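Risk register update: the risk of archive-format incompatibility is retired. Evidence:
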Amino acid sequence: MARPIKIIGRPEREPGIKEVISMEKEFNEKFNEAVNRYRNSLLFYAKIHEWKTFKDKAGCLFDYLESTEISEFKNRFFRIFKGVIFFLLLMVVIILKINPEASPVLGRVQEIMILFAIAGCSFEVYFLHNIRIYIKGKELYYNKRRARFIRDIETDFKDMTPVAADPQQFKEKELQEIGSSVNPSIQSTSSD
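Archived output:
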């Protein structure tokens, strides 16, 4: 009795719904952690009134959000796209296998299936065209949207942070607080 051939490098099965949900949950947690890191750094630079660095970090946040959005968008699109293409190929195979001369009903079924396949192809082409236009539009106005995002977030953070009488004193105090929370030995040396 021969054993089945195992193909090396390929998974034995596709990931199930539980694995997909856990992967999405893990991705969401990593995404939230990254956004929180950006938010904390933006808040820090806003508190010490370091607006040039703040703008650089806000630009990095925008780039991260855009790249994540586009990659998720493409992944979801191609997941749907593959299913529709498989369905259309299945329809073509069934259409080619049907012999309309055997029965007039089979001829009618074949015509209906051809109409469904044409409608499916039309939908897929329309959907693909809309996706391409959407992504090109996002890329075309990328710099304007990035500048507006930075300007808006800077305005929001300027409204949130208090204005110190002496910005240098505020900076030193803030750095000291952050340093003491990160490393307790800094607190003992600063109090001496």
